[in-house]
């Protein structure tokens, strides 16, 4: 009888572990609203009104470290360790992508589960898309695509993203380095990267987009987070900045 119970428990544990998504780290992606809006497509404010002039969360995205090649894989091994990268190396082939997505389409976001976070989410995770103007739809999509692969409960997924954003205020960090929103000033890519590294203690990846006149502007900052979604780490992979030159703008919002 005891043997049978032990077998059932072991089988249950194996079943749970097989469901868990095996990824290496999270990207906490934050976007500058001025750069989102200062494009030919423009933007729309959410139903809660114009967001604050500060970086807003785009999402918390599970990612694989094995997507790199050559130097990228060496960097991933140095940051995460050879065992971790080797353990998760099979995940890329399984889904054929550099990240897991849409892991449980039946697990829709419940407003009740995040009810105590709504005010903070409205401030820190607003939508600027003109598709709906309702931030809850934005959060629901991010949860469905990325959150269902995070191995986190709905509340933890959003709460941990908010906690890291609050702990490292990118807008204040850049301002402390003299990098402030302006319609005329330009800043070097390296100065932005160095300011974030010094202000947070960790390297991040940067992404540019182009304004209506074709000028490069800082669009998104990709901070890397451990698999529990609790602590920043140095980004184990580099990524293209999409910047047309070393100089970029941080437009007013």
UniProtKB/TrEMBL annotation:
GO CC term, one of those recorded? extracellular region
Residues in the active site? Answer: 58, 142, 146
Task: Write one Gene Ontology MF term.
Answer: RNA binding
Source organism, top-level taxon: Eukaryota
- Output the GO biological process annotations, alphabetical, semicolon-separated: RNA catabolic process
Q: Signal peptide: which range, if any?
A: 1-20
Alphabetized UniProt keyword annotations? Disulfide bond, Signal
Give the UniProt family note.
Belongs to the RNase T2 family.
Name of the protein described by the UniProt record: Uncharacterized protein
């Amino acid at each position: 009888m005891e043997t049978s119970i032990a077998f059932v428990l072991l089988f249950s544990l194996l079943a749970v572990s097989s469901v868990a998504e095996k990824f290496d780290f999270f990207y906490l992606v934050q976007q500058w609203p001025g750069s989102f809006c200062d494009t030919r497509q423009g933007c729309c404010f959410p139903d809660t009104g114009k967001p604050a002039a500060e970086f807003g969360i785009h999402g918390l995205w599970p990612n694989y470290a094995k997507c790199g090649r050559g130097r990228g894989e060496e960097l991933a091994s140095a940051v995460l360790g050879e065992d971790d990268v080797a353990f998760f190396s099979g995940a890329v082939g399984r889904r054929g992508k550099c990240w897991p997505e849409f892991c449980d389409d039946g697990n829709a976001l419940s407003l009740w589960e995040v009810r105590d976070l709504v005010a903070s989410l409205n401030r820190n995770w607003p939508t600027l898309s003109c598709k709906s103007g309702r931030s809850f739809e934005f959060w629901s999509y991010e949860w469905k695509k990325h959150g269902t692969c995070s191995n986190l409960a709905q509340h933890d997924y959003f709460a941990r993203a908010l906690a890291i954003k609050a702990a490292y205020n990118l807008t204040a960090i850049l301002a402390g380095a003299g990098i402030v929103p302006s319609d005329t000033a330009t800043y070097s890519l390296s100065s932005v990267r160095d300011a974030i590294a010094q202000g947070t203690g960790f390297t991040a990846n940067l992404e540019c987009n182009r304004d209506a006149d074709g000028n490069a502007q800082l669009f998104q900052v990709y901070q890397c987070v451990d698999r529990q979604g609790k602590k920043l780490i140095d980004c184990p992979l580099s990524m293209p900045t999409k910047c047309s030159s070393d100089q970029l703008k941080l437009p007013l919002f």
